Amino acid sequence: MPRPGPARRDHPTSLLPAALDLAARGIPVLPLRAGKVPFANCATCRSNACGGRPTMKTPGPCTCPLPCHGWAAATTNPHTLTGHPWSAAWARAHAIAYHPGGANLTVVDLDNADAIQWATGALPATRRVSTTRGEHWIYRGTMRSLNAARPGVDIKSTMSYARWLTTGTGTVAALPDTVRALADKQPAAPRPVPCAARAPAPAAGGPCRHRTPAYLERGIAMGEQRITQARAAIHATVYRTFLTVLSTHGRCGCLTDAHVARLFAAAQTMGESPRHCTDAWINARTRLGL
Q1: Which of 71, 149, 264, 290 gives 277 a disulfide partner, CB atoms 3.0 to 4.6 angstroms apart?
Q2: CA distance to 38, 132, 180, 245, 289, per residue, from 141 (Å)
Q3: What's the pTM?
Q4: Hey, CA dihedral for 65, 67, 73, 75, is it positive or negative?
């Protein structure tokens, strides 16, 4: 991995030069807002109306000039990074993120001392970067990203972003089979589970009103809008939105995988991980007794 100088986190205006330095070395970068989350999709791209798919391997046909779509927006193009409107985003940014998979890298994110101790005994030495809670161990090679690969360990590579902190110390080693094996033991991704709980049929015996396409579509669309228009407290907003949708539509079995996936996708455009989405969904169902 190349060795550009560390970004000066105390001066946001210095982020763009550091980002350009990384991009010149083949590392795709993007700006992060406060809270270490990407900038939200613009009105045109909201809810992936543009056809972009931040949860897939490519951003789709979207050609939006804004830093939309989370990790999929990461770029090495200096004209994109410095042009309008990216320049405005950098002026508001609090940190730099990069797409490890796009640079043929994998980041083993160690969240605590126990995770670091495990890595020290189980993984080959490589470049290490200190983080707020632990360390990033960076390897050469790519694999699918995975949250909670083991206690305190996340894997960030393809379809993911990691925060750029400093150059770190040590020489980047090849991605070991030990790390790849962690993904082999886990499902590909948390899959949204539609609510299967069912309430008694309406007394009049008529069809469930939630199955009316317009009624249900409006509820899901309002949920997407509420999430993607949030400007703060993203975690809380996602949870409250899931709670609202489930309280209205969750007892009759009308929600499908497609509906839930839309809500998850909206949350992920705001920087939520699949794990956070799944946790919020489960917590909302539990609170409602579903």
Answers
A1: 264
A2: 24, 25, 10, 40, 44
A3: 0.64
A4: positive
